[in-house]
Amino acid sequence: MTASRPAPRIRPDTRARRQHLLMLAPYLVGLVGLMLLPALVTLALAFTEYDLLRPPTWVGLDNLTALVDDPIFRVALLNSLVFAVVAVPLRVLVALGLALLLHRRAPGVGTARTATLLPTAVPEIAYGLLWLWLFNPLYGPINQLLRLGGEHGLTVLGRTPPPWLTDPTSARAGIILMSLFTMGETFVVLLAARRALPRDVYEMAALEDATGWDVFRRITLPLMAPVLALLAVRDAIASLHFTFVPAFVVTDGGPPPYATTYLSLFVYQTGFEYLRYGYAAAATLVMMLLTVAALLVQWRLIRRYRRFYQV
Amino acid sequence: MSGLTLAGVSAAYRDATVLHEVDLAARPGELLVVLGPSGAGKSTVLRVVAGLEPATTGRVHIAGRDVTDLRPGLRNVSMVFQSYALFPHLSVAENIAFGLEVRDVPRRTARERARAAAETVGCAGLLGRRPGQLSGGERQRVALARALVREPDVFLLDEPLSNLDLTLRVEMRAELRALHDRLGATMVHVTHDQTEALVLADRIAVLRDGRVEQVGTPEQIWRTPASTFVARFVGSPAMNLLPADAAVCRTGDAPPLPEQPLEVGFRPEAVTLDAAEGTPATVDRVEVIGEDAYAYLTLAAGHRVVARVPAARRPARDESVRVGVRWADAHLFHADSGRRYVP
Amino acid sequence: MLLVAGSLTEPGLPPSPTPQLVPDPLSTTGYQRAVELGGLLRASLNSVLVAVLAVPLSVLVAALAGFALARLAPRTTTVVVAASLVALMVPATALLVPRFAIFRFLGLTDTLVPLIAPALLGTSPLYVLVYYLAFRAVPADLYDACLVADLSPLRTWWRVALPLVRPVTAGITALTFVLTWSNFLDPLIYVYDRDLFTLPLALRSLSLLDPTNFPVFLAGAVLATVPALVVFALAQRRFLRPDD
């Protein structure tokens, strides 16, 4: 054997580690550049007045105090919260119902699942346009359907069909109705969750001659509760976002007084229509705080279920 | 020639040390079996040799080369995994040639060598198939072919037979030994199966809790176990172990016991049930395995002992027998350390 | 059960381009006018351009990052996965203003760059996480076998890991395409030049038409929906199949 220089003491995995980090790099750039940095910018802009033309000027807490007094913002915040409280449980319920119906193998189930998912795949804007037509009080199929059998543009019951998008209440209801069909993601998760439930529990229940309702209330629901809770929180956060296109395209925030102006639309209009970026950033900050609050709730839920199931 | 040496090698998993300054050597062309119960660190030995786990202390030499700081690919070892680790998306031929092709061996050469390797282990008929279409034994052969196609300095085999059913395991065991003899390669074979170790090995290293308990030929391991642990781990049913001063009848040439706390070990084969002066015992239960029967006994003093007897002459349950131990076949161990007592 | 399914099928399917429930005078004029008025042809080209650039880039970023996460030390992985989970929860609208400020600072507004940039995130951190889980589920022995064969991480990824998760790649590619194709918010904010309009944005200008022109904008909606639905329908067979 020839005496050689002692090999430099390199851990065998440094080369691999460097390459792995390199592979991760683009994503990290995206994560920092498109998520972290924007979040920080929001924090900074929220305390400035900025219209893109002149450099931002520091205004301290003025934006936030103005927000509190801003009636439109208050309406928007309220609308968003109401939407989350009404639409989100409905969406989860619809998804749960369908998941429970469609988790078995049966003829037509595959088609039905596809049908459930399809609305989620339709581009938001096209979906919005579709509903703009569906909701149209005169030409829209919904009211045409409601008028079937009635006379003089009245329904069978002799009442006027709802003037969908021009009346505040029915406009809000309309947006919620729209949102009910796009719960594809929630549906997929619930479907998987239902299929993951142990089969023998249900066989046991069948041996005990439990009725369908008992099985649902005593077995399915408790077992799926953790997933349901997490999905609801997630959906609530997402609802801050997915109210935008319907409100923007279908109702344009109206009918007065701002019946369907949600936080997302408020931010957009303030920033990109009235060019008050600082003010919009302050509203964004409120939105983020709501998100953080929801995340905290979610985190606590996870911890509670962890303890409960001892995992 | 290409041997393997571990000198004072320690390894850790998370914060727990799983190997304690292991010294171990496989001579060139030797088939060394590392034997131990699960959790003894057997697989870690292989993984440290392969470079898949770092050694926290000590050096690893392969074919005279210090490879301690080399990455796995530069150590010129090949490994057969317990799960075989065949790539499911590649055909058998591609699997075998994989290690060559990624080292930029020309495609044709790689394919030819893959075919040759497949013929060596008897899976040349499977070259076009995918791992998913193979039986356990066939996968085993492909994994072997993949290991030997690269002509490595050392073969590392991590419980390669443990996923096969008993018949196949016995068959592959014999083939593995024949393959080793044909290639004359250095192999390190890890197993928890003592029979496999006794049948296959040139030498056996018994591992316990990350330490080498004994290294020796199968004969040495069987005849002169270095500790109570080795004595009881090798052999089934396990060796009987009693305090040396327990009241038991010693037959044959029995020198006086030395004056210190000792334990005596004797295999079921060394027990007779019809000794004239034998210790009284009752039969708790009897297991018949073909021509042999194992009688589980309780001695008058309360100690439990297993005896092997011809099935035709087995005692009945609850029968009283007189137990004698052929003292020439007994082993003495220090009671405190468990190490073998050498007069 | 069929009722529910049937009622759901309706909004998802391409709507009839006429105001009647049963399209009486079946005509394609809606489609023709939609294309003319909305500049849909030009917009389609832009959408295709964005998708062609963004989708492969996005899948590439996600697959590389997911693999690296599955192979890096647990501590690094935990930090990045946690950050991704949080990022996943932030509603997209919450980042409109700051992102806009950043792209404006970089002088990239009114180009297609901000529409392609999310590809650096893998379009959604979710896809990175999905890849991470998929690559982590690959048996560790296979990775070890690659190490013994002296495969670099990049080649391990390309030759072994990626082929093993092909269904995942198919699903993620389809979803990325659907998201990119449907993206409305980003073009709305970043693009003002009509020549750079993508399909969803062009559709929006159709929506400002007189309400009697329903056939026209519905025709546009159908045109925009079909590619997304085709890709989605193909993909969902894959991700709903494992449980069938």
From TrEMBL, chain B:
Q: Molecular function terms in GO for this entry? A: ABC-type transporter activity; ATP binding; ATP hydrolysis activity
Q: Which is one Pfam family of this protein?
A: ABC_tran
Q: Which residues form a coiled coil?
A: none
Gene3D superfamilies per record: 2.40.50.100, Nucleic acid-binding proteins, P-loop containing nucleotide triphosphate hydrolases
Record-given protein name: ABC transporter ATP-binding protein
Keywords of the record: ATP-binding, Nucleotide-binding
Protein source organism: Micromonospora endophytica
> Would you name any one GO CC term?
ATP-binding cassette (ABC) transporter complex, substrate-binding subunit-containing
